[in-house]
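In this notebook, the sequence line spells out the residues, with the fold written below as integer tokens. This is how one looks.
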Amino acid sequence: MEPPKKKKTIKFSVYWMYAVILLLLAGIFYLDDNSITKDVSYSDFEKYVESGGVDQIIVFSKKDQAEAVLNDSLARVIFHESQFQKSSGIAARVVTEIPSASKLQDKIDEWKAQGYFNGEVKYEKGSDFLSLLWTFGPVLLLIAFWIFFMKRMSGGSGGGAGGVFSVGKSKAQIFDKDGPVKVTFKDVAGLSEAKTEIEEIVEFLKNPQRYTDLGGKIPKGALLVGPPGTGKTLLAKAVAGEANVPFFSMSGSDFVEMFVGVGASRVRDLFRQAKEKAPCIVFIDEIDAVGRARGKNPNMGANDERENTLNQLLTEMDGFGTNSGVIILAATNRADILDKALLRAGRFDRQIYVELPDLNDRVAIFNVHLKKIKLDDSVDVELLARQTPGFSGAEIANVCNEAALIAARHNKTTVGRQDFIDAVDRIIGGLEKKTKITTDEEKHAIAVHEAGHATVSWHLKYANPLIKVTIVPRGKALGAAWYLPEERQITPSQALLDEMCATLGGRAAEEVFLGRISTGAANDLERVTKQAYAMVVYYGMSDKLPNLSYYDSTGQDYGFSKPYSDHRARMIDEEVSRIVAEQYERAKQILRDKAAGHNELADTLITREVIFTEDVERIFGKRQWASRTEEILAANAKNQEVPALPADAKDESQEEDETGKSENETPGDNEVTEPQATSDVTDVEAEELPPLPSDEK
């Protein structure tokens, strides 16, 4: 049965008013009788008729008025020559008040008998409507236009579009239970732990008696925390589709406007609407836009609109009044900067961590995004999941889309395994630029640089295992190396030092084997410097400054003051310089000891432009340290009595890790950036730490 067609409704538009005004102007132009009129007394009217200067008399019986059409001679006497010209077709008329139509008729009969008037006599009833319209029409039009303009400024009946008069209204989108549902929990792959907690909230709204019988209370709020692209907003959309209750969706930035007090007013209006439709769910996306810790960056004593909005939000969430049946969901990837009062129990009772997907989750996410893609038999979803360690759900969706685009670019009818490999490389390192002009000298320098990274990392215990090295330019990088970070929950100091040494391997190879250095190591030096400062200032891994951390996890930082003296700042700089110098010398020593293997590796790179793990094994022998990640996966598989993942993939056999990154370093004449997919947990913390004050470097 076809759904009933919706009746078309005619919406009012401002152009209608313009059309009415144009029609009125046209009517005035065309309905004008092209005449000049003068009001006279009844005695003068009689005098004009008796003088023989009247050609026609029109009697308006209803208004007790009479109008006389004058001939040319009398008209020239009464009106000035400039007002009356016979050649222009202007008719001259005089209007007077009469005692009554019957008395005027008697007078007309008398005039005809005496020969004063022989013209035509017309009787018209006349109407007051037209005169009233001409009198009050313009005023009515102005009033109607003003009312329309005020309604447009106040957002009309919707109340959401908003103008100047609706800035205090909530801009939340309402998804009612009767509306179209597009996303459910079935569409959310992976995130099993997060979905379990979210589903519990939805289940309470559907069946509250099951929990209240035991004396339990539903959490008043849940905060979704996690890196970008992991599916926080997608989870909220699934809640809207599953909860079967009204769902209010709003962004944190929607609360803040240029007007003082608008944010607090919108918070009040949002919760007023939510209480009216309780039980319901309110979702605030990117809540860090309004929930930043108070007292940070004071505006010289001025009124802070963001703090007022946050105070109102805190009051509405768990203040003196109660919001029974209103559950707050919020999402952010900057939970560290949120105000502590916002995170306390009673407001956000739960913090649900939406982490980067592990191997099994990545398989499930790939299966969701591959449904609409035409695949050939060479595509192995499990292998794709192992090739994308540390990718978020959004990045996996991007991989699938890029693979389809690459296949279409090569006029293929299906998407194959190589298309997905190229898509991963494209996203991490950029598009290959095989036509980029490089001299033989530059190509040799790039190969020496990348071979230096591979050689040093191969001979360090904690360095990340090598996957692939290429000297084909990608994006802004002239060369790229793919490494797979080990799965670690905590990182020892020696692991940080080994990573720094491997990162400096490219610059060290240039100095040892070429006798000169280039700007290609700019990105390497940036990463090493940040990591060295993190070791000294945040992790307390310095011999001279042990067990000290100047990192403020509350997000308050230290305002305009630094937490240490100038003397301590000099000590920090000295320690950072010492750590970097020691690892640089260590990298050069490894390269001198393995010079023959390095040169062979560089020659292979120049010849083939890309090398894999087996090429390094052929030159240096098998790496003496087993992959810690492989050991963990093997142990887990043994404990669960489940066969371990196959390790028969070619160069990607070591990609069974569940977090990973790509490092692009570029020896050459241009400063480069390093696209990264992901990083080790500790490395992420090191890179996200706030930089030191500029006056201390």
Q: What stands out?
A: Confidence is low (pLDDT under 50) at residues 156-162, 642-697.
